[in-house]
Amino acid sequence: IDYNLLKQVRRDYVQNMVESDYVLCCRGLGNYSFRLYEALSCGRIPVLINTDCVLPYDFWIDYKDYCIWVEEREISDLPEIVADFHARLSPQAFIAHQQNCRALWEHYLSPRGFFSNLHRHLQDLGLISSKLCQVSLRP
């Protein structure tokens, strides 16, 4: 295995994502897209191809507020959907949208964000009591 080549490929992948305005996120082997989390962590706007995937905390987070949401049956309209979305944004709104994507990842989807909110989900499911939820979760 050429580890230098693997590092370069990963560096190129991340650089490509950071230099992109939008990132196509479609399912991989499972019914989810790891690229969605990578795009959000880079503060990029995901173009999510929905295949009835289940997303973390989707009962609190309206992912359509962050992603360009494209139903699988709409794939042929993808260029127009992205162009229409982009045309509706001012330059300032575009930057704010990217910042909101990064904030979503930080607060809910990064390892720290995910686990700092997990108690809320467990409480909603009735798996832990509200008294346990009052414990301080220090960073």
What separation lies between the terminal Cα atoms? 38 Å
**What global shape is seen?**
globular
Please state roughly what percent of the residues sit in beta strands, choosing from under 5%, 5-15%, 15-25%, 25-35%, 35-45% or over 45%: 5-15%
The helical percent reads: 40-55%
Question: Which series of helices and strands comes N to C?
Answer: HEHEEHHHH
List the uncertain runs.
Answer: none
Beta strands, count? 3
Mean pLDDT across all amino acids: 91
- The number of helical segments is 6
> What does the radius of gyration come to?
17 Å
Query: What characterizes the major β-sheet?
Result: 3 strands, parallel
Main β-sheet, spatial strand arrangement = 1-2-3
Structural class of the helices, strands and pairings? mainly alpha
The oligomeric state of the chains shown is single chain
Concise structural overview:
This protein is mainly α. It is built from six helices and three strands, in the order H-E-H-E-E-H-H-H-H.
